[in-house]
UniProtKB/TrEMBL annotation:
Natural source organism: Limnohabitans lacus
Keywords: Signal
Record lineage: Bacteria, Pseudomonadati, Pseudomonadota, Betaproteobacteria, Burkholderiales
Superkingdom classification of source: Bacteria
Position of the signal peptide: 1-23
Protein's name in the database: Lipocalin-like domain-containing protein
Length: 145
């Protein structure tokens, strides 16, 4: 929990300062014929367009390798003027992301799956904020296909 809190604190400060780590996504080529077991967190690095059920417009999610935790990701979820720190993991096609609004506490948890045949280009699942109702989401990679 302290690791996540420290990660979210550091990312929030970087993103609020407007540093390029939150603005310039890294692009990765999609592997031809990829299989679910071959997909790692590295395949999720970059910029994503995120749609949430019941909300107009889309969010931008930028994910980067976590500098302190190999195999994990951190980044920012943005829809002007909102800007939230996130930490994410991918294990066996199961996507988990924690969202923080203040850099201290987890505000929402995202649980999803990489869609079969999408080569880590599409993730769908649910987002839950506190004890509130679950909200469906779809994430689409903006990497070159």
């Amino acid at each position: 929990m302290n690791v996540l809190r420290n990660t979210l604190n550091g990312l929030a400060l970087l993103c609020i300062a407007g540093l390029s780590a939150c603005a310039n996504p890294v692009t990765l080529a999609t592997a031809t014929g990829c299989a679910k077991q071959e997909i790692t967190a590295e395949h999720l690095v970059g910029s994503w367009r995120v749609s949430l059920s019941g909300q107009a417009g889309t969010w931008t999610l930028v994910l980067r390798p976590h500098p302190e935790h190999e195999g994990s990701l951190r980044g920012a979820l943005m829809q002007i003027p909102q800007h939230y720190a996130v930490a994410a993991d991918l294990e066996d096609g199961e996507f988990t992301m924690e969202e923080s609004h203040d850099g201290q506490r987890i505000a929402a948890t995202w649980l999803g799956k990489v869609q079969a045949g999408s080569c880590a280009q599409v993730i769908t699942g649910t987002r839950q904020e506190g004890a509130g109702a679950e909200q469906r989401f779809e994430m689409r990679s903006e990497r070159l296909r």
